[in-house]
Amino acid sequence: MYFSVIYIIGIAVLFLTSLPASIEGGVALPGLVVALICIGLGTGGIKANVSPLIAEQYQKTKPRVKILKSGEKVIVDPDLTIERIYMVFYLSINIGSLSSVATTELELNVGFWSAYLLPLAIFIVGFCILVAGRKRYVVRQPKGSVIPQSIRIIWIGLTSHHGLEAAKPSPQGRLLNGRVVPWDGTFVEELKIALAACKTFPFFIIYWTAYSQMLNNFVSQAGTMELHGIPNDIMGNIDPITIIVFIPVLDRLIYPYLRKVGIAFKPITRIFWGFILGAAAMAYAAIVQQIIYSAPPCYDHPLHCPAGKLPDGSYKHNNVHVAVQAPTYFFIAISEIFANVTGLEYAYTKAPPSMKSFIMALFMLTSAFGAALAAAIAPFAKDPNLVWLYTGLSIATLCTGLLFWVSFRKNNAVDGTTENVNNANRQFIPLDELSPTSTRAPTLHASNFDDSRE
Question: In the chain, what's the furthest Cα-to-Cα distance?
């Protein structure tokens, strides 16, 4: 909640310093700097905490039987419910991101202040809803930062021949050398689990580097093609629209069908395919760029050639319709559903209760490293080298995905597989209770969050 206040202050500063009087008074730039700092701090705190908070509202941990309208008895599985929660969460995020259509038009036709006023008003409304319902939420009470203790435990493990086991204290809270520590053996075991989950995170840095092209170079790429009245920065909305359409399709149709026919589309597999589709997006972007370079009037120097100069001093765009770019956003959107949504789910489910926000923050930190890497290669993002830039990113993302699969595919054996879940379910729900005449494993379902009907 405190981070939300910081975020609101940042947007308010951005709005106030973008007013015409503020711009004329020379406070626009200082206001922008202050606003970016506040928004950055607020965003970091909100993102690291809101994802675990949402998932923690679902408190059921044991499978249970549900009778469908068709009369079939199925098992409502908590793991699949968490998967659905993050799908719906990401769907909501992308519905909100469509506001960029309105803010773009406001900035163009009214002014920057109006474009900032809209998110400020929406966020204030959201904050009021959050405050009003705070007593209804399941909230884990803060117990101080786990970072200092985690660093000390890791240091002990690195300097000992026994690894993290050396950091486990006796019942009296003492280590072998007599030092008294504030943690117990359970916390050390939780840290082991957290570190195992974190091993997957560095691979996402390359994915985010490729993904970030959508926020800058793809916009510039569209600006070199024939727009036919379509603003080049509007094309990016194909991404959230695709996500909004395909999340329900995957969640309600494709994933249940795969489970029914015995194909468990497990987290590691989903993340792997997210990388592959990210690589496909970059490969298609390279193809589009080559098409642009092959089109008149400016070929591999679009918007910068004598042949394309118009009487008013502007330049004619290369003769390629901007719609050709659309599949790039489609591939990126589907890759997000597989890689990013599953990454959020994986970070939450693998993190111990005391470290969920911390592990979520580490996962989201990978996007910052990806953005930094994208900034590092930005000097190469210029004509006529863009085909090689996109090709290189495609190869890097593909190789990272393959390495990820080779490194972690064995985790699929324990990460919520259909077989393992069924075996666990049978401890609570015998098969003959579901169907006395059938020996087929019961169908697994996610909760619809309506316990009164389940």
Answer: 85
Residue partners of 324: CB distance under 8 A and separation at least 6:
225, 288, 291
Residues listed for the chain: 454
Bridge-based pairing state of the strands 73-76 and 64-67: antiparallel
Residue 384 phi/psi, 5-degree rounding, is -100, 35
Residue 321, strand partner residues: 226
CA distance 213 to 208: 9
Alpha carbons 366 and 340: distance in angstroms, whole number: 11
pLDDT for res 301: 93
Environment class of 79 (CB within 10 Å of its CB; exposed 0-12, middle 13-18, buried 19+): buried
Q: How far is CA 65 from the centre of its chain?
A: 32
Q: pTM higher than 0.70, yes or no?
A: yes
Residue 94 CB contacts under 8 Å (≥ 6 apart), including other chains? 239, 240, 243, 244
Strands 444-445, 73-76: pairing is parallel
- Residues 319-349: tens digit of each pLDDT: 999 999 999 999 999 999 999 999 999 888 8
Amino acid at 363: F
Whole-angstrom Cα distance, residue 178 to residue 176? 5
Ramachandran quadrant class, 325 (left: phi over 0; alpha: psi -120 to 50; beta: rest)? alpha
CA nearest 199: which of 359, 354, 357, 48? 359
- Torsion angles phi and psi, residue 172, rounded to 5: -85, 0
Neighbours of 252 (CB within 10 A): 13
Measure the CA–CA gap between 213 and 386, rounded to whole angstroms. 11
What HEC string does 276-298 produce? HHHHHHHHHHHHHHHHHHCCCCC
Measured distance between the N- and C-terminal CA atoms of the chain, rounded to whole angstroms: 32
DSSP secondary structure letters along 420-440: HHHHHHHTTS-HHHH-TT--S
Q: Are 441 and 74 in contact (CB under 8 A)?
A: no
In the DSSP assignment, the letter for residue 315 is B
Residue 5, token pair as written in the block: 């206040």
The full set of domains in the chain, from first to last, is 1-56+99-139 (no CATH), 147-194 (no CATH), 199-416 (1.20.1250.20)
Split at pLDDT 50, 70, 90, the class of 73 is confident
Other C-beta atoms lying within 10 Å of the C-beta of residue 446: 21
d(Cα 275, Cα 270) in Å, to the nearest integer?
9
Given a contact cutoff of 8 angstroms between Cβ atoms, the answer to whether 196 and 206 are in contact is no
Distance CA 77, CA 445 (A): 6
